[in-house]
Amino acid sequence: xxxxxxxxxxxxxxxxxxxxTAEEKRYISDSLITYVHSGPGSQYRxxxxxxxxxxxxxxxxxxxxxxxQIRDSKxxxxxxxLDQLSPLPSLRVKLPELEQKVSSLTEQLHxxxxxxxxxxxxxxxxxxxxxxxxxxxxxxxEVLQHQLVVAQKKVNAVNQQQDDKQRxxxxxxxxxxxxxxxxxxxxxxxxxxxxxxxxxxxxxxN
Length: 206
Description:
Blueprint: H1 2-21, E1 24-28, E2 33-37, E3 46-51, E4 55-62, E5 67-71, E6 77-81, E7 85-86, H2 91-205
């Protein structure tokens, strides 16, 4: 009973190993050409060749001879050394993909470069516009400062004229007041002499 269990276990493991090796994708290594045989060994007849990078399907493995049974893209079932199989695509298969990636990255860099140049041009244009605005504001400031200086001079001239007029009015009033005072003084000096003489004349006539 124990032997039967071991036999069943061994058959199960064999089936699992068979299922694990069946229908596995493999790629011919980067050799220029690989010859395939009708059986698991170099003593079997060569029945064709495969190119480097060809995709094949691994069907079985002969560990004693280190050969693998594969099915190629033409549907042929042949044998070849396991060391000529690779689980990864060869460089010949990867090359177009790598070229596509390089082309895509180059295009992205080109787009980034164009975008950067456009942004740089826009920034330069904005800076140039800002410089023009600054120059205009400086010119307007200079004009306003000149106008302010002219206005201040005009105000000073008007103030000077106003001061001259005020001094002239004051001088006129001073002269007028002096004339009035002088006239009053003279009248005050003459009036006493005029009035007594009239009294004496009237008195003498009486």
